[in-house]
Amino acid sequence: MDTSEYLSMFLAESREHLDTLNQAVLRIEEQPDDRETLNEIFRAAHSLKGMSATMGFEQVAALTHRMEDVFEVLRGRPDGLPREGTNVLFECLDALSAAIDSIDATGTEQLDPAGLITRLTGLIDDQPAEAPTAAPGPPAPAIDPPAAVMAAAREGRVLQVTATLMPSVRAYMVLAAAGDHGAVVHAVPARDEVDGFEGRTVVAWVTSDHETDVLQAAIAAVPDVAAAAVEELSAGAPPDAAPEAEAEARRPGEDGAAPSKRTSSTVRVDAERLDALMHLMGELVVDRTAVESLAQEAQLPALTEAVAGLTRSSQALQALVMQVRMIPVEAVFMRFPRLVRDLSTKLGKQVDLVLTGTETELDRTVVDALGDPLVHLVRNSLDHALEPPDERRAAGKPATGTIEISARHAGGNVVITVRDDGRGVDPERVARKAVARGLIAEEQAAAVDMQWAVDLLFTAGFSTAEQTSDISGRGVGMDAVRAQIRELGGAVMMTSEQGAGTSVQIRLPLTLAIMPALLTQSGQTPFAIPLDRVERTLNLAQQTVRSVTGQRMLVLGDGVLPLVDLADALGYPARGGGDHVVLVRGAERRIALVVDQLVGQRELVTRPLPAAVGDDLALSGGAVLADGSIALIVDCDALAEQMARAPRAADTRCTPTLAHAA
Fold first, then answer.
1. Is 13 in the active site?
2. Active-site pick, 22, 39, 380, 413
């Protein structure tokens, strides 16, 4: 059978099952008697094994099959597995994940499970011998097939499957194995009753074209099935069928026919199709803007009304497309329980991880890119911030530290915070490291306060680690966070209190594809300023302007700001003497940008700039306008940092409290 057409579905579902198993094993390590989680483990493991075997990936199926036997041990041990046993399970899951990635890349498993299977077998062999099993009681009473089964038998071939189990945990696996060979019309226990099933006999009626011996072999192959029998059901009337069973079977339909399967309410769509849909939506926005401009020039009432309807419909479609691309941040948050567990064990620290706001939604592209920066922050908290238990006790803290990762909506943005209750930033230590690395002069070390120390932590190549390890110390952590969040159009802010802990806040746009912006003209170049950064606009002729040491200053009721010609600041020809001022926020600074013209608010489809254009300038992207020209999108954070560097040049001090995405 050619299974290549199902490969993409297999890869997606396999990764989902592996994520489920990782999270479930973590939960069962903390609560070994959690029966619901154990059943979830069996369902995911059996599905992964069955899918792998069907696709011909026998090594994945073999390793998963042996893991099922260890999960069976978990079912019989109220105290769970020792930590070493859980570590083996995680190693198996990592190996399976690598095998799935290899299948995705090369089409082959590249997995040798022999060593892991031996270690899994050791876990089973090390378990204490079970008490002798009581002699089996009398055979279970015969179960008459319900009316729905008999109706199905009159229309096709129905096989009755009877399995006698050793432990009841295999009930679900028997039903799953039967379902692999046909449609399960009815079962005792039913699928939704398996969790509480304590019996030893499972009966299922399956519509199938497979031979009885094939189905019987599949049921007998389920671990701990003591006996399996399969027989073809006669299409005659059910013997002594109870009226209650007949009535119950008729409820799903009026004619007592077999109930139809409920269709799924979700559809799996390839991510590339969503990207293509978003791209076409962006083109539609550009075309809509062009039509709106033409309608405004034509001044035809009927055309204006038609364009207004087009705008409403396209905006509704745009909102729907954006919503389709939204996924919960849980998709990236769920990787951290395992990460924290492994690293805290390696570092000898006790850590509680708290996740809040996992239902908060972000654009899929943003969520996909968010993982690495958050990993950097969590690893830094574990390695640098949180103290060992003895040190925490000596400081009057609980021996167990806390890392909290939270997400929340804030206007048109999502704010993600990584907070710990560790040591906090030590300005003196940061200053010593900065002097040693030549970032500041020795005489400046005494002046380094918390704000300055925080800014130094985001300097490229800076690290406070005493020695390099596989966890941290290579000087790429915080600088990498800043660079990656900058690429997402976001900003990073760090606050810290020595001895109490550190909080790092990431602010991200909901989506990267379409951005509301204030379109301006400065010199001959159109510039777009993200609307969420604009405080207000002013007519320069109506404002008070003073000159201080040759610098024009805008006098406002709440302070004085230097006037910055936008085109000149970004290295483009400037006309000079602009007519308008746009007050924007960047890196916790207010900037007064002088522009020649305020064109108006626009929804722009953003595009990345070539590296040669965007790397050295405070620009985050570009957008094609209705007339075909390109507007450059201003990176307000980078522009604020660019302005701050000038006064810092004399003392090399980094003064902003915001370690922004620059």
1. no
2. 380
